[in-house]
Amino acid sequence: MLAELAAYPDAALDADRYGQGALLDSFERRIATELGKESAVFMPSGTMAQLIALRIWCERSGVSRIAYHPLSHLAVHEAQAFSMLHGLSSIHVGTQVRLIAPSDLAAIRDRIGAFLVELPQREIGAQLPAWDDLLELCKVAREREMRLHLDGARLWEAAPHYGRSHAEIAALFDSVYVSFYKGLGGIAGAVLAGDADFIAEARVWQHRHGGRLVSLYPFVLAAQRGFEERLPRMAGYRERARAIAARLAEIGGVHVNPNPPHTNTFHVLLPGTKEELEGRAHAIARETGVWSFGSLYPTIWPQLCKWEFVTGDATADVSDDEIVAIVEQIVAP
After folding, report:
1. Count of domains in the chain?
2. Same domain, 87 and 10
3. How far apart are the first and last CA of the chain?
4. Are 183 and 75 in a shared domain?
5. Does pLDDT of 286 surpass 80?
6. Boundary (domain end) residue, out of 229, 244, 263
7. Same domain, yes or no, for 244 and 135?
8. Mean pLDDT (the chain, rounded)
């Protein structure tokens, strides 16, 4: 990747310094335009970007309570950072096994400073609400005077499902976070977008978080390259995922969620223990040179494991028939 980035035309530009520079400035403007927002700021991580957004909205609303899905990234992967670093409290909306419904949010009687919506909801198979349901959910939040923040870590992957522009989706929210190292294949990094005064304040909080690095240009170059090369392929990734999921669902004992997939990511539930399934997958990789997965996620059922299946460039090198044959060997050697 580093060798390819060195040959990238914008690699000749001067490196940014403490958030200033032509490469960084132009990329931030480009993403702000793509999302239909006034301004944007590049940050080292999505965790930082989202904490800053929620802190700002809660301070402005005067309510230090946030709301989100029980399996939000904030709840599962961030060690309660919103509470430990910013003194915010939280409320879970809905249940772990499905998307948030407008009625779930309407049932919350506590005052909420900021409501976070994740599109897609990764931990339940990268599911997306129907467009009308999303509009109703945002309407309920607005009626309750909640600020709306979009966890768009996989927004690039979600847009093909709706057949709408990124700006049209982002317009429903006061602020938006997007990632560049997932579907776009960057090294690391995220962008937080919103109104100009919001982003100006976010830059101050970025400094306070230690996120104002002396230079970000390798991350920005990789993000820009992924944005230009992989974003146009997202619809194709999704269609391939739907084709593979349909085939895998026909294998005895294998379950796909959701079926058909909403994005290029979906969950495959495999019968067996984590140790035996991983052992078979790794043995097949040594024999065939085809890597299926490194590790599986446990579920509440001891004899059922979860595989997060993501289609992308690498998946194109393996046919549907090969994938089906490998999965059949993993579950029924």
Report:
1. 2
2. yes
3. 37
4. yes
5. yes
6. 229
7. no
8. 96
Residue 102 has pLDDT above 80, yes or no: yes
CB 297 within 8 A of CB 305: yes
pLDDT band at 12 (very low <50, low <70, confident <90, very high): confident
Residues 171 and 268 in one domain: no
How high is the pLDDT of residue 259?
97
Domain endpoint, select from 229, 253, 284: 229
- Please check the confidence at residue 214 and state whether its pLDDT lies above 80: yes
Give the residue among 60, 85, 53 at the shortest CA–CA distance from 203.
53
Do 18 and 92 lie in one domain? The reply is yes
Range of the domain at 294: 233-331
Tell me the one-letter amino acid at 72: S
Give residue 151's pLDDT: 98
Residues 86 and 219 in one domain: yes
Identify the pLDDT of residue 14: 87
